[in-house]
Write a structure and sequence with these properties.
The longest helix has 27 residues. The protein is extended, with a radius of gyration of 22 Å. The chain is mostly helical. It folds into 2 domains: 30 residues; 85 residues, no CATH class. A two-stranded antiparallel sheet has the order 1-2. 14% of the residues are buried.
Length: 117
């Protein structure tokens, strides 16, 4: 009986260790996302968005989580508009808030071109 009991505990420890390693591996491969407000596990940030005039909240988040100081012109191209982007999650749907016309133009014109056929 003691052998069976210790085997069950070792199985439990091994499974916990496996889950931890798998979690760390998955987390390390995630893309670096722009900053944004923390949300709840299932709802995400949907509870923080008002029913009316959502753009005012989005603008507030852009000012809070974006860079409020001028960006130096020598930043690499991909980091130039970093402060104009805010990441939120709305009920499991990843959402990117673009807080300036310059960042929107950069994303749509320069990076939005389809690959050549």
């Amino acid at each position: 009986m003691a052998n069976s009991y210790s085997w069950d505990i070792s199985d439990f420890v091994v499974s916990i260790l496996f889950c931890y390693v798998a979690y760390r591996l998955i987390e390390s491969r995630r893309l670096a996302l722009p900053p944004g407000p923390k949300g709840l596990p299932v709802l995400g940030n949907s509870y923080q968005i008002p029913a009316r005039k959502q753009w005012l909240k989005f603008d507030e988040w852009t000012k809070e989580y974006g860079m409020s100081r001028p960006r130096p012109p020598d930043l690499p191209h991909r980091n130039r508009f970093q402060g104009d982007l805010v990441y939120i999650n709305i009920r499991g749907q990843p959402t990117l808030i673009v807080g300036s016309i310059a960042a929107a133009n950069d994303l749509l014109k320069d990076r939005g071109k389809p690959p050549p056929l």
